[in-house]
User: Which sequence fits this backbone?
């Protein structure tokens, strides 16, 4: 399948605080912009893949979005792998296209936890809630502490990821948070759940984002102006809750990444730029290790001294990621991956012809990987 399917168009709403916007309207706006970017009419769409909104899940939501768009797809529905859903839906769409189940697919997400409800992020987790384990940060804090204790990762190394994301976001006109972060700012930011500080944690954001997926052949027929080939994808999952896992210093990115690299016929050395899911700073650090950019335990040293900034060994989250561009779970990373290989990013990496994107769901429960190339 390498290169047989492309991302033909991308689109998104504004990011941040969008009072009065429903998830229906944001999905429609993002899809309209993605179709316009591809130069494709909505009547060509026969596949619709929708991520459920964490701020207000509704039964048959995929059909609600299809009705709002004014389309009747052959195939589609709503998927839930947390933040890993977006890349997984793109891979499902690609497989459906490859097997003749649809020809042109929209893959879309919209949510409004900032002005709606953020209960999904704040709720207690199982029986451990009685001991104070509330909200998503507690699980990532446990993982971060284990990584620090076993492998020597430091606060300063986590801070390097936060500072890179904020520096990139400050140069992105669409970013929700356009304020650089200094080492002193990071060191004095308020604690959330030890060892995580406020600047280790992603934003809470309203917004929508979408991509158009079709075969490379169909893109040629429709004269799509800037199709981006999908070179590889993969998924990995764990069924264990954090407190029950045999070890906490590795993730399902090992399986997901290996699958995507094998499909693409590539290795980490072939990647020019990466957009790695950064709900918390520990997540991209561990993903760098699990993808094989460095050995386990060396992720902290890899990100130091500008290693993940523009001009570094692996420019990371060049639009600002979840830490600066928007806390939306994942599709914005795909869109920035597309921009990089198109050469249209606000923080363009010179001669970037390959881009790696990761999505992650739950508390490192699910992982999806996407490798994009240039046409």
Assistant:
């Amino acid at each position: 399948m390498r290169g047989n399917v492309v991302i033909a168009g991308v689109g998104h709403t504004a990011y941040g605080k969008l009072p009065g916007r429903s998830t229906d309207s944001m999905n429609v706006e993002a899809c309209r912009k993605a179709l316009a970017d591809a130069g494709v009419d909505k009547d060509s769409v026969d596949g619709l893949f929708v991520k459920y909104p964490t701020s207000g899940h509704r039964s048959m939501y995929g059909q609600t979005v299809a009705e709002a768009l004014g389309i009747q797809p052959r195939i589609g529905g709503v998927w839930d792998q947390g933040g890993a859903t977006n890349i997984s839906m793109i891979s499902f769409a690609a497989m459906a296209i490859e097997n003749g189940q649809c020809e042109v697919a929209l893959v879309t997400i919209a949510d409004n936890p900032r002005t709606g409800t953020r209960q999904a992020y704040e709720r207690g987790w199982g029986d451990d809630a009685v001991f104070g384990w509330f909200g998503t940060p507690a699980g990532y804090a446990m993982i971060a502490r284990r990584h620090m204790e076993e492998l020597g990762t430091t606060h300063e190394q986590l801070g390097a990821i936060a500072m890179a994301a904020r520096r990139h976001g400050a140069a992105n006109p669409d970013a929700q948070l356009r304020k650089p972060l200094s080492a002193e700012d990071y060191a004095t930011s308020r604690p959330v759940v030890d060892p995580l500080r406020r600047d280790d944690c992603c934003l809470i954001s309203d917004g929508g984002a979408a991509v158009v997926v079709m075969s490379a052949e169909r893109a040629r027929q429709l004269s799509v102006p800037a199709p981006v080939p999908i070179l590889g994808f993969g998924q990995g999952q764990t069924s264990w809750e954090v407190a029950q896992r045999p070890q906490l210093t590795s993730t399902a990115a090992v399986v997901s990444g290996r699958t995507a690299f094998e499909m693409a016929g590539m290795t980490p050395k072939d990647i020019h730029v990466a957009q790695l899911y950064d709900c918390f700073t520990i997540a991209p650090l561990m993903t760098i290790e699990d993808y094989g950019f460095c050995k386990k335990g060396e992720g902290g040293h890899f990100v130091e001294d500008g290693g993940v900034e523009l001009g570094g060994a692996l420019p990371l989250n060049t639009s600002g990621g979840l830490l600066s561009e928007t806390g939306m779970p994942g599709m914005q990373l795909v869109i920035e991956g597309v921009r990089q290989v198109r050469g249209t990013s606000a923080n363009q990496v010179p001669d970037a012809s390959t881009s790696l994107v990761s999505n992650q769901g739950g508390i490192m429960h699910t992982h999806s990987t996407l490798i994009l190339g240039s046409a």
